[in-house]
From TrEMBL:
This is Unannotated protein. Pfam families: Peripla_BP_4. Gene3D superfamilies: 3.40.50.2300. It is found in: Cell envelope. One of its GO terms (cellular component) is outer membrane-bounded periplasmic space. GO terms for molecular function: carbohydrate binding. Its main location: other. It comes from freshwater metagenome. InterPro entries: Bact_Solute-Bind_Prot2, Peripla_BP_I, SBP_2_dom. Residues 39-300 form the Periplasmic binding protein domain.
């Protein structure tokens, strides 16, 4: 039902019929934030469960600040697909755009156009390239890239007994967040786990791309097993990929170990039956929530996004670090012991 609704919203938006999914009375105001802001919330793709949770947090923030918010975007996680929607948002004169960049470079010219048109742009979950940071005010990311990457190496090391060869099943080759995490994995595995290795010799040559598409991710999982039949473990730093890997591992009774970044609501069946021992993630609800607050405060003139400045979202204060980025915190680990609780949340 969520996928069907997402496609309807996406289709309506592209022809100019953007419909707000949450409208709050102007009486619900927060000091330092203008009431009645028109905000667009754009995921990499509207039909990905992770972003449904991300939008849940964004809509909660929108309600608290009295904003009129629209969840809109493509059904395929590509930069060119997002550009069509960004251009439409510019035409419809939104105040704010909160976006997860499907491509760190392809959307930058359109973001610059949005900025020139007076739209406050904040990236969340996935940022633009570092050289293009001026195209947005600030980026709200889950945690430092190095920590997200190394944590997943630790999870797979535990699963394979700290020995054997490892592959990566990622999202798109142009996804800045996944690329940064994967880059951090390479030297960390080599240094900390001498009996482990990358199937292709380096982490870059050991990475397969499923483009955040379930069908493609399933095919790439099969390609890894076919090309490297002795692979001990697969890390998938994407909720779409790790779910596809878990489903296929169970269906094929594959011996390969699987871990990565997964939604507890989606991964619960595979953790509970032992197909996957452990996955991790931050709370995407929080990520969307904080991003809307940052964007709204920036649009209201009470937050600049400059390094060293801070802003408040709800009861928590966040500080902008090098690169114009604010982080939520370390990823949380889900196991059979705690998955029952978290699968009810997101």
């Amino acid at each position: 039902m969520i996928k069907k609704l997402a496609k309807v919203v996406a289709a309506a938006a592209i022809v100019g019929a953007l419909v707000a999914t949450a409208v709050t009375p102007a009486s619900a105001v927060v000091p330092g934030i203008k009431s009645g802001l028109k905000i667009a919330i754009m995921p990499k793709a509207v039909n990905i469960g992770y972003f449904t949770a991300w939008n849940k947090g964004a809509q909660k923030a929108c309600k608290e600040i009295g904003a009129k918010c629209t969840y809109v975007g493509p059904t395929e996680a590509t930069g060119p697909a997002q550009v069509q929607f960004i251009n439409k948002i510019i035409q419809q004169k939104y105040d704010v755009l909160v976006i997860s960049a499907a491509d760190q470079n392809a959307i930058v010219p359109s973001l610059k156009k949005a900025k020139a048109a007076g739209i406050t742009v904040v990236t969340s979950d996935a940022d633009v390239a570092e050289a293009s940071a001026s195209s947005r005010v600030v980026s709200i990311l889950p945690a430092a890239s190095s920590r997200i990457g190394t944590a997943q190496v630790d999870w797979i090391a535990e699963a394979v007994g700290k020995k054997g060869s490892i592959a990566v099943l990622s999202a798109a080759a142009t996804a800045a967040n996944q690329n940064a995490w994967i880059k951090a994995m390479g030297p960390y595995l080599t240094k900390k786990y001498p009996k482990m290795s990358w199937v292709g010799g380096t982490v870059g040559k050991s990475t397969f791309y499923g483009d955040d598409d379930a069908t493609k991710s399933t095919a790439q999982f099969a390609a890894i097993l076919s090309q490297y039949p002795d692979v001990a473990g697969i890390i998938s730093p994407t909720t779409v990929g790790v779910l596809a890997a878990a489903i296929e591992k169970k269906a094929k009774s594959a011996k390969v170990k699987v871990t990565g970044l997964g939604l507890p609501s989606q991964m619960a069946p595979y953790i509970e039956d032992g197909t996957v021992k452990k996955v991790g993630l931050w709370n995407p609800i929080d990520l969307g929530y904080v991003a809307v607050y940052a964007a709204a405060r920036a649009e209201s003139g009470t937050f600049t996004g400059k390094v060293g400045t801070s802003f408040k979202a709800g009861t928590t204060t966040y500080k902008v670090t090098t690169g114009g980025v604010a982080f939520l915190g370390d990823p949380f680990t889900f196991t059979k012991e705690n998955i029952k609780t978290f699968k009810k949340i997101y």
